[in-house]
Task: structure prediction
Amino acid sequence: MELTIGSSVLELVQGDVTQQDTEAIVNAANRSLLGGGGVDGAIHRAAGPELLAECRTLGGCETGNAVITRGYRLKAEYVIHTVGPVYRGSNPRTERLLESAYKRSMEVARAKGIRSVAFPSISTGVYGYPLKEAAPVALRTVAKFLREHPEIERVCFVLRSERALRAFEEALGKVDLAE
Result:
């Protein structure tokens, strides 16, 4: 599924974020940045040990923030590492932290001159954020950023499962992306 927002394209696809041919991919990292399970582990394995070595020099990353490294053995030149919130029930603070993780990732990409970015669904794995709550936050945040910053030409949400893809497609049909 593809949607035009201003002069940018927003895509939803099912697949593996490590295989994306974008300038940057986003890693749903933990605060240490030293690898883990899910998307984080897959990105570290695909990028090779050099990624871990570079991450060790960064001193971690706070929840809601983002940092950038090289992509090493990935197709993507860069990895933007962001830390989403652990879900402990619906509340405005958790939603703001998830929104911040997406927004800071886009800000880091823009600052580096990156024009294409692939995102996983942040915080919806082991961090427990329900897909039906996370998808609208992700889509609204990225769409707003694209309207304000057309220099980012393409953002792709790469969703691992059919269930995740459906949740994002449903959210796309309900969310007002012109806010």
